[in-house]
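Whiteboard transcription, Tuesday session. T.W. wrote the structure tokens on the left side:
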């Protein structure tokens, strides 16, 4: 078992390998994390782990009304995640490689990272200025018939895109070629579909690529059928994809 200890960044979203993650860092615990990452030599990866929040708040209450009018201000690296942060997070996340960490004059940060490797959360340490975690790196097993399944998912995804564009009364503007490597297909489709966080999390932690693709094929067929029966989808993403404040 290969384990690694990294800074931990909990979010109200799921990061997939190969996908880009832009972040606006303003909380002190995450600003401290970025300052620490900037100490890493430029020729070495500046990595942290992203996990989806199961029970807790992405932004800790800092004053009444932020974000809850009845909230009591909290401080510290585990603020908003309860007495035992390990139980506040989903157990499978993704390592993020920060290609850009830019500090603004006000001390906040603009970060652009990319998901790399899936990891399983083993323990969480809240003794420092930010959360750190011991993580087990997860191999990507292709499973059985991943290639044919990827072809089927791509066909279904193109139909889904067409139906979604029609429901929103807009045309598809991108003719970019989609990938054909099964694991890449599985992560791209998982990230591109309009899904809630629990469903995205289920796809991330699928035991192998083929299982993930089978699940996506069912989801694509179901979602396409729903879109086909509706005359329009006004701002539906606002009800199904939470906004990340960080």
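and on the right, the sequence the group agreed on:
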């Amino acid at each position: 078992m290969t384990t690694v200890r990294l800074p931990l960044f909990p979010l109200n979203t799921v990061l997939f390998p190969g996908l880009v993650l832009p972040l606006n860092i303003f909380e002190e615990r995450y600003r401290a994390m970025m300052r620490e990452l900037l100490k890493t030599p430029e020729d070495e990866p500046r990595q942290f782990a992203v996990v989806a929040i199961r029970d807790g708040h992405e932004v800790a209450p800092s004053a009444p009304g932020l974000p809850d009018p009845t909230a009591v201000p909290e401080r510290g690296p585990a603020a908003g995640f309860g007495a035992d942060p390990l139980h506040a997070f989903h157990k499978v996340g993704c390592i993020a490689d920060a290609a850009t960490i830019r500090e603004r004059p006000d001390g906040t940060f603009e970060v652009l990272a990319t998901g790399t490797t899936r990891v399983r959360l083993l323990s969480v340490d809240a003794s420092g200025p930010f959360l750190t975690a011991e993580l087990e790196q997860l191999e990507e097993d292709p499973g059985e018939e991943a290639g044919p399944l990827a072809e089927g998912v791509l066909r279904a995804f193109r139909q889904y895109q067409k139906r979604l564009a029609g429901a929103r009364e807009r045309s598809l503007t991108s003719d970019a070629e989609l990938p054909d490597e099964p694991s890449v297909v599985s992560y791209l489709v998982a990230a591109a579909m309009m899904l809630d966080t629990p469903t995205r999390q289920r796809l991330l932690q699928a035991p192998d690529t083929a299982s993930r693709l089978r699940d996506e094929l069912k989801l694509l067929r179901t979602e396409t059928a729903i879109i086909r029966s509706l005359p329009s989808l006004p701002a539906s993403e606002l009800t199904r994809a939470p906004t990340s404040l960080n």
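Someone added at the bottom: Confidence is low (pLDDT under 50) at residues 169-175, 233-246.
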